[in-house]
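REQUEST
  id: r-88c1
  op: predict_structure
  target: Resolvase/invertase-type recombinase catalytic domain-containing protein
  payload:
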Amino acid sequence: MLYGYCRVSTNKKDKETGAYVQTTDLQRDALLSRGVLAENIYEDRISGTTKERVGLNELLDKLQPGDSVVVWKLDRLGRSTINLLELAKALRKQGVNIISIQDGIDTSGKFGEFLLTILGACAELERENIRERVTAGIAISIANGGRIGRKKALNIYARKEVIEQFLSGKSITQISRTFNVGRSTIHRTLQNEGISALSRKENKE
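RESPONSE
  id: r-88c1
  status: 200
  body:
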């Protein structure tokens, strides 16, 4: 059985006409010309980077071994090369082929293995590019005086003030209200500095 899938990246409509800004008409016509029945065409009007795609999920639930998924172009099917590779592998394992009209691709037969090899290489390149961008971003942040990880609720000056107020006799609740943070933050600040109720007693002595 042939099933079709088409996608555009927005569901916005023209304010005057009420028509969709982007239409799937071209994709649908191509799928119909390829022999896909209208009732077997599923679509999404959402960005390809969005994980949850209702139309695609409904299509995947319908597929059986021997079926083929027809798309206008491969980029309509996957959010990224990595995602497309994972989907292609899952469908191939299920015995389902992918046909891309514009790309001239049909994963049935030997070409399917070749396509997965190419997608695998592209996906690895994509992963490497992501790793390089993350590493570069961290290096730039550190070079500019930034830090990696969750930002502390209290800066170094506030932490010193917390200790001084605690040693002077103020309660945890009073201090937390002063700095507008939770009691646990004050407890943690004191604990990290090795300050306890005993420290307050020793300070008075």
